[in-house]
Design brief:
Largest sheet: 4 strands, antiparallel
Radius of gyration: 20 Å
Oligomer: single chain
Number of strands: 4
Strand order of the largest sheet: 1-4-3-2
Shape: globular
Length: about 200
């Protein structure tokens, strides 16, 4: 009886491990696609908006980013409960402020970066494992310093507008390569399970 129970527990543990591994792979694929989509928007749309409207263009871009990416992920997954949000500790817009869980992860990212360790996006469960959250770090690029660098790198006209719109701004004095925030993806576990079942069925 004990031997049978041990076998059952072993099989169950193996199944859970395989299921978790499948969830991880699928989540990473979704995150890879979303990160590609964000970088494309950053390279094309953000660049054009800044060229046309300067700081105001950048402000409008990041104000609308959550809505754009949430729409994209819902279209991609055919699921209208998934969502994406830009979260940060060094936020400019208070609506991008990271919650306690995201703060801990971003701090761990920053520590790894400081120690030259590889950073991998982290999956965390939420609401009794009904939702997967996946955090993708966003790094400061050279072009970002015009809005997020030190007082010598940010044009005076930009500084004036930052003080006007964001008096409690925390997104300054950053350096190229710093982590400015993360894309926080939230996908219901039911969606993950369904996508895995479709994938396994098609094999």
């Amino acid at each position: 009886m004990k031997k049978l129970l041990s076998i059952i527990l072993f099989v169950l543990a193996l199944h859970i491990k395989i299921s978790w591994a499948e969830n991880l792979v699928l989540s990473q694929e979704i995150a890879f696609w979303l990160n590609y989509r964000y970088l494309k928007l950053e390279k094309e749309t953000l660049k054009v908006m800044i060229e046309n409207k300067g700081f105001e263009g950048a402000r409008l871009f990041f104000n609308d980013l959550n809505r754009w990416l949430t729409f994209d992920i819902r279209e991609y997954l055919h699921d209208w409960n998934s969502k994406v949000a830009l979260v940060s500790i060094n936020y400019r817009n208070p609506s991008h402020s990271a919650d306690k869980i995201a703060q801990k992860i971003l701090i761990s990212y920053q520590k790894k970066l400081a120690n030259n360790k590889k950073i991998m996006p982290v999956i965390i469960s939420k609401n009794n494992k009904t939702t997967y959250r996946y955090l993708i770090p966003i790094y400061v690029k050279k072009d970002c310093l015009k809005c997020h660098g030190n007082k010598y790198e940010i044009p005076f006209s930009y500084q004036t507008k930052i003080k006007k719109f964001y008096p409690n701004d925390k997104a300054i004095n950053l350096k190229e390569g710093d982590i400015i925030g993360a894309l926080n993806i939230e996908i219901p576990i039911d969606t993950i399970d369904y996508l895995l079942s479709v994938r396994n069925y098609s094999k």
